[in-house]
Design goal:
It is found in: Endoplasmic reticulum membrane. 44% of the residues lie in helices and 9% in strands. α10 crosses α13, α19 (483-495) packs antiparallel against α20 and α19 packs parallel to α21. The protein is globular and about 85 Å long.
């Protein structure tokens, strides 16, 4: 009898403590106590304490209900004013629990001293050079550095089917080429010039290497074009970077590579390119007929700039034809695209529509192509795509920083029905807040970024896939990806809120602690155990380090020169220049009938929950970008407490 009394007493005590914590702070744990039910106290549910009408029909703003099923009734209405004054006062008192000097979020994130900013800038510089110098010492002229064994890595010639390696590594000094413009961002003109001369003297694309068209385009072609533009820019914002004897060799190399990629666009019934080419022989005879949407539809920026630099429409034409072909195959019901398509039949093999792997840069390049080239059809496609994303992928409350319900999250859905297909998001989706900033939707960008930052805080990295239902990683590795850093940098540029400097510092300290090894920074094989793989991908130097450095370098020429620049999807710098809005040829891109068909209204307005930059309240620029109550809610939802 005594042990039964003891057990009952402990259970009652635990429930009592949980209830007290829940009532006061929303800190109650997820309890099961061995039974087949859960008591899941999410912070926004505290609002229930202040509601009088419990019978209103539930609003669909709670994606977390998929975790444990509906647990309570919600009133509809964030914006309703009926019943107003008393409810408003009570909601104000609810948020006031986390206001003021007692709020740990405000204390942690509200200021970032200049001295600390300088220290972080220097830390980012050292991070880059630790990777770059060791690549040059131990790996060049091979493509990548193995940072644990301090050796170089090239294509896996013994196993041609190892596409994880061979899609990217083409035996063309990938890491050096990819890092060229980062050297200028760091102000190292002399090393930039030396690196350019090394590329000119040692790199050839006449190689028996089968590479992915997408990877060769964004990493190699994009970097060569960017470095050439910066070398020949008469404004010279980074100082005197041009040197005597330079005769457009980087542009010639870019042209040569692009010509070798062109066979991917031949002999396809849809105009959508094959995913891979051999740089010597063209499309391999055993090539598959399936490609992903991002791989086929993210060539327009680099190919378009090349066409306009050399006056040859071929490259822009094939890239634009592929985009139009994909766009014409979107769902008539939802406006969404799938993630894998057959290039001969035009049938969708993968019907998942999301914002991560296989789709991410397709959306990115619709907007960036418009910004660079000024072609209206690109913006029309982007507007329509963004509206479909907001209507079918976005879950959660209407407003990021107001109201009740779960935080906004973009899920993977069936392209035809809009029904959720799975319960994971991937790390590549962390780029999307940066794209939302470019589109003026800073409010939604703030919320999605906060969700990914919470995942980072929990693991010290971003798992390749995170299951929001299980609150656990589905795919455990982290290959030093830049997407969260990129969005952090762009949100800081948009808001100048010190919160994002703290995020950058957290990311950099995690990288130093969890990924630094003898000769560089290594891929995390397991984000929980922190075991490592012997690989440092080229984008770590071309993007991750670059965005970290720029985040803390307020006086960088990119910020102070008075000129406007755009980052490609690989982080390469291109100026927004009027010469890229001029074509030396007649319009060779007539729209196929129906390819750009618009809804009944020719004016595509944004959904009501989108906020433009100039609608961000002034006070929000001096407080936390996301209210503490919502930060705590997100932290709770990813299992931080």
């Amino acid at each position: 009898m005594q042990w039964r009394s003891l057990v009952i007493g402990l259970v009652v005590l635990r429930l009592s403590v949980s209830c007290v914590l829940w009532l006061a702070f929303g800190l109650g744990p997820n309890l099961s106590l061995g039974f087949n039910f859960h008591l899941n106290f999410n912070l926004h549910k505290l609002d229930l304490l202040f509601r009088e009408d419990k019978d209103t029909e539930s609003k669909d703003n709670s994606w977390s209900q998929r975790i444990h099923g509906p647990k309570y009734e919600e009133t509809a209405t964030t914006c309703a004013k009926a019943g107003g004054e008393q409810t408003s006062k009570k909601k104000k008192s609810y948020l006031r629990l986390f206001d003021g000097s007692k709020d740990e979020y405000a204390r942690r994130y509200s200021a970032f001293p200049d001295a600390l900013k300088s220290q972080m800038k220097e830390m980012a510089r050292e991070m880059f050079y630790f990777g770059y110098d060791n690549y040059m010492k131990y790996a060049f002229p091979e493509d990548e550095l193995n940072p644990i064994d301090c050796e170089g890595r090239g294509p896996d010639v013994l196993n041609p089917s190892n596409i994880n390696i061979n899609d990217v590594l083409g035996n063309y000094s990938l890491t050096l080429i990819d890092a060229l413009d980062t050297l200028l961002v760091l102000g190292n003109v002399s090393e930039f010039q030396r690196a350019v001369k090394l590329v000119i003297d040692t790199v050839s694309f006449d190689k028996d290497s089968t590479v992915q068209v997408f990877e060769a385009n964004i990493r190699i072609l994009g970097s060569l074009i960017s470095a050439h533009i910066l070398l020949t820019d008469p404004k010279q914002p980074f100082g005197q970077v041009s040197f005597e004897g330079y005769d457009n060799e980087l542009l010639h190399l870019a042209h040569d590579l692009a010509v070798r990629l062109l066979p991917a666009f031949e002999h396809t019934d849809t105009g959508i390119p094959y995913p891979r080419v051999n740089l010597k022989t063209g499309v391999p005879p055993d090539s598959i007929n399936e490609t992903c949407t991002a791989g086929a539809g993210s060539l327009l920026v680099e190919f378009g700039i090349l066409s306009r630099l050399i006056g040859d429409s071929t490259f822009e034409w094939v890239a634009r034809r592929a985009v139009r072909a994909l766009w014409s195959l979107r769902s008539n019901e939802t406006g969404l695209l799938g993630n894998v398509i057959n290039i001969q039949t035009g049938q969708w093999v993968g019907k998942q529509s999301g914002l991560g792997a296989g789709m991410d840069s397709f959306y990115e390049y619709l907007l960036k192509s418009y910004i660079l080239f000024g072609e209206k059809e690109d913006y029309q496609m982007f507007q329509a795509a963004y509206e479909s994303i907001q209507n079918h992928l976005r879950r959660g409350r209407d407003s990021c920083n107001e109201g009740e319900g779960d935080p906004p999250l973009y899920v993977n859905v069936n392209m035809y029905s809009g029904e959720i297909m799975n319960t994971w998001i991937d790390s590549l989706q962390a780029f999307f807040p940066g794209l939302q900033v470019l589109n003026g939707d800073v409010d939604n960008a703030i919320c999605l970024h906060a969700f990914y930052y919470a995942i980072w805080k929990r693991f010290g990295a971003l798992p390749e896939r995170y299951n929001w239902q299980l609150q656990a990683p589905d795919v455990l590795f982290y290959p030093l990806r830049p997407e969260l850093v990129e969005s952090t940098y762009l949100l800081y540029q948009a808001t100048k809120n010190p919160f994002y400097l703290h995020v950058g510092m957290d990311i950099m300290q995690s990288l130093e602690q969890n990924t630094k090894v003898r000769c560089g920074y290594a891929t995390l094989h397991h984000v929980v155990e922190k075991s490592k793989e012997d690989r440092m991908e080229s984008f770590f130097l071309s993007e991750t380090c670059k965005y970290l450095y720029l985040l803390f370098d307020e006086d960088n020429p990119l910020h102070k020169s008075g000129h406007k620049y755009l980052f490609t999807t690989e982080g390469h710098i291109v100026p927004i220049d009027k010469r890229f809005r001029e074509k030396q040829w007649d319009d060779l891109f007539p729209c196929e009938e129906g390819a750009l068909a618009e809804p009944e209204s020719t004016h595509l307005s944004h959904p009501s929950n989108i906020s433009n930059c100039n609608r961000i309240p002034v006070e929000q620029r001096f407080a936390l970008p996301l209210k503490s109550v919502y930060m705590r809610q997100i932290d709770h939802m990813v299992g931080l407490f």
